[in-house]
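New to this. Explain the following:
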Amino acid sequence: MKRLPRGRHGLPREFVAQHQRERLLAALAESLAERGYEGATVSAIGKRAGVSKSDFYKQFESKDACFVAAYDDAVAQIREPVLAACGAEESWAAGVLAALRVLLEGLAAEPARASLVLVEGLRAGRGIYDRYQAGLQSFTEQLRDGAPAPPEGARSPEATDEAVVGGVAALLSRRVIAGETERLPELLPEIAEFALTPYLGAAEARRIIPG
């Protein structure tokens, strides 16, 4: 995010404060990706954001508070376009495919955000882990909504939906840790088959997944 002009600029104080906050959130994610949690100090975050330490503490009482805000913001930035893509399709399967495509492309385009949510968030303690689980639950509910009964006819148990979403998250996390974030869109056929097979059967899942 670009910094504001130095000196007198006539911008409203509230706008400046919000702009600083957004820069700090982005800077924290980038610092975490480069330095890890211990190395991402308040000074390092502020320097990257172009925000003084005193202004940092006007926004957040601590690095931990900044981390929580950055995490929540990152999850929202991921969730909104994914759920919108899903809801824009007429069929359930097409919605799942669209959501996965947007998810993978969005993570690949923002490696620092991907690392914050899928890697650093799992290392940050119980509070963030609870947020991580809540995020997964929102996707689980979306996956289950409108899902067809599997070929055998009986509706899959809720644990199936949780296993699918959790499995996708775990796979993506491993790829991010391995430094392969920018290649995540290449996984669409594999991940889509994994997600759709419990509901459609393997043959039908493969049929509708683009080659």
